[in-house]
Amino acid sequence: MTRVVVDADRCTGHGRCYSLAPDVFDADEVGHCVVLVEDVPGELESQAKTGEQNCPEEAITVSR
């Protein structure tokens, strides 16, 4: 299973993650990333990786 973790201290709210991967990420009340699905099923794995790769602060970690 693939897991997604966001380092809240590094996230500054650019919004790329939830714009590019809306089934995995969302925004909190100030625009910072919130993980919707921590244990990512196979069909959402590519979205999770897209969010990770496009985070300018490298606040997102996707691991197996």
Automatic annotation (TrEMBL):
- Sequence ranges assigned to domain 4Fe-4S ferredoxin-type in this UniProt record: 2-30
Gene Ontology terms for molecular function: 3 iron, 4 sulfur cluster binding; electron transfer activity; iron ion binding
Q: Does the keyword Metal-binding apply?
A: yes
Traced from the root, the source organism's taxonomic lineage reads: Bacteria, Bacillati, Actinomycetota, Actinomycetes, Mycobacteriales
State what this protein does: Ferredoxins are iron-sulfur proteins that transfer electrons in a wide variety of metabolic reactions.
What species is this protein from?
Answer: Mycobacterium numidiamassiliense
Residue ranges for the region (Disordered) are: 45-64
Q: Which UniProt keywords apply?
A: 3Fe-4S, Electron transport, Iron, Iron-sulfur, Metal-binding, Transport
Q: What is this protein called?
A: Ferredoxin
Q: Which InterPro entries match?
A: 3Fe4S_ferredoxin, 4Fe4S_Fe-S-bd, Fe-S_cluster_ET
Listed Pfam families: Fer4_15
Keyword Phosphoprotein (UniProt): no
Cofactor dependency: [3Fe-4S] cluster
